[in-house]
Amino acid sequence: MRVLFFGDATSIHIHRWKSALEERGIEIKLVTPDKNGGIYFPYPSKRDIFKDCVNFRHILFSFRPHLIHIHYLPTSWTNITRYAGLKKIVLSIWGGDIWGRESLSWKDRFYRAYLLRHAAMVISPSFYLIKKALEYTRLIKKWEIIPTGVDTGFFKRKRGKKRVILFPKHLEERYGGMVLLRAMEKVKERFPEVVLYMTGTGEVEEEWRRFAERKKLRVVFTGDVPHEKMRELYEDAWVVVVPSLVGEGLPVSVLEASSMEVPVVGSALGGIREAVVHGETGFLFEPGNSEELARYLIKLLENKKLADRMGRKGRERVKMKFEWKRCTERMIEVYRRIL
What we know:
The chain is α/β, with parallel strands linked by helices. The chain is 42% helix and 16% strand. It is built from 13 helices and 13 strands. The strands form two sheets. The protein has a seven-stranded parallel beta sheet with strand order 3-2-1-4-5-6-7, with helices on both faces.
């Protein structure tokens, strides 16, 4: 089977899907606007749409894919798929491509709705995102929930935890890092030895650094961490916090933390509610409520048995529902059904 991927070559998760499917004998070619990976194809422009279609036809003719899998819902590919007459399209929605419908122009809403309607199958990591997609159009032909799963063999605990709280997101306002920093003021009063690790970089890094320094919080800003190195941070963590202020599709970081037997405290928003079972694998709190977040963190820090029990339950759940091999098999089943 030959499958042509459309997507961002800088996305680790697209490469994970590509590698996993190739290991199962599926031939994959990646078409990407990134010059450093795959078959370079810039985002189509309205002015050169027919030229772009001809160039795209050349790619199709040389590879002859059985189907096309578009990762992320872009408006730029709509005219290509329409004018090129593509039929067997699998469309994966991720989160940022679905949020904010109200702020889009009518053209952008139309383009997204067109791709959603004409895809042979829409793949979503969560029920939450399917509900958001249905706000664009009720005429989605078929949809399937297939998360980007976790390799539980790789993300497996090998040593004890430290008094570390881990924030495994980028330093962007929408991910709620400031909510966590405010909660750390309360945590510090009870557990002054606890350290917060904040990964990644972003637009509010300097603001968060200044806040942490002013409040004398023990915070380590790690910078960008390669995906394969995240295991070491999860292994240090007593608890992982995902305090997002916007609904996410299904944060892979939550599943990885659970696979590492780390309880997760997350906002009761979007796909986080599908990844965390409140009171069993972690806790859910009201988005933006730093006091409630602090209470849950203190509860886990003062009760190791509770934290360990939630961690074990989290790993059991990931192995049952989000194992990477199982997710790959389900994707292959979708491909076969379409063909």
